[in-house]
Design goal:
251 residues, alpha+beta, Peptide Deformylase, four-stranded mixed beta sheet, 4 helices, 25% strand
């Protein structure tokens, strides 16, 4: 395993759509191992392949249980969100936008399908930290960043590395809690590969927001933001962003 450089906001690859993995071979296993190593080195709770410059639909997640401190790891290839339930305002950051967080809307529960690292079809129904992380990371596969959910980049807040902590707000829609589950999917998924395409809509909105707001948000994050909104995740180790944010969403 090896750590790979994490791309930051100004890199156009973060705004490109990733293509589906056609075969789960040794190169994919190496990519997954490197992504896990990179995520851990950056003290994140999630990472998507585009963040290390690889435009393939692969994500890794790892967070610690708040009560037991037990680590939970999820690896998904060609993930797809099938359903969302409820909504809450989540504070999250991103390893590709280090040092800043924002509050964005996220679903309380999600149902996701994909393949595990062995190529087996799986479905995951979950809430809590994993639901948060999955939404953030799957966004990355479509060139979407959490800042794309903000009305203005002025809503970004600067934080010190190691000082962040994710706090769950009251959901706007309350439902009964369902325990996370992972089960085999009936009917194999046969993904088709496509060409990576630049995702320019978010970029235009972000640039416009940055120009109009012209305030204190990070010059690097605002001036080059390809979008004015974003997505999030949660965990106990650090933010998805790449800075240690005790239980925030960083990936």
């Amino acid at each position: 395993m090896a750590t790979r450089p994490i791309l930051t906001l100004e890199n156009p690859r973060l705004r490109m759509k990733s293509v589906k993995v056609k075969r789960v071979d040794r190169s994919i296993q190496t990519l997954i191992d490197d992504m896990i190593e990179t995520m851990r080195a950056a003290e994140g709770v999630g990472l998507a392949a585009p963040q290390v410059g690889v435009l393939l639909r692969v994500i890794v997640c790892e967070y610690a249980d708040e009560e037991t401190e037990e680590l939970h790891q999820t690896v998904l290839i060609n993930p797809e969100i099938l359903a969302k339930e409820g909504e809450w305002m989540a504070e999250e950051g991103c390893l590709s936008i280090p040092g800043y967080v924002g509050t964005v809307p996220r679903a309380v529960r999600v149902s996701v399908k994909g393949k595990d690292r062995t190529g087996k079809d799986v479905r995951i129904k979950t809430d809590g930290p994993l639901a948060h992380i999955l939404q953030h990371e799957i966004d990355h596969l479509d060139g979407i960043l959490f800042i794309d959910y903000l009305k203005s980049l002025d809503e970004l807040r600067e934080v010190e590395p190691g000082s962040r902590r994710r706090r769950r707000r009251t959901p706007r829609v309350l439902d009964e809690e369902t325990p996370p589950s992972e089960e085999p999917e009936t009917g194999a998924d046969h993904p088709e590969e496509g060409k990576a395409q630049p995702e320019s809509n978010a970029a235009g909105r972000a640039e416009a927001s940055a120009t109009a707001s012209g305030s204190a948000a990070p010059s690097s994050a605002r001036a080059r933001a390809g979008g004015s909104g974003g997505r999030s995740r949660a965990r106990t180790r650090s933010c998805f962003c790449g800075t240690s944010c005790d239980e925030r969403a960083w990936t």
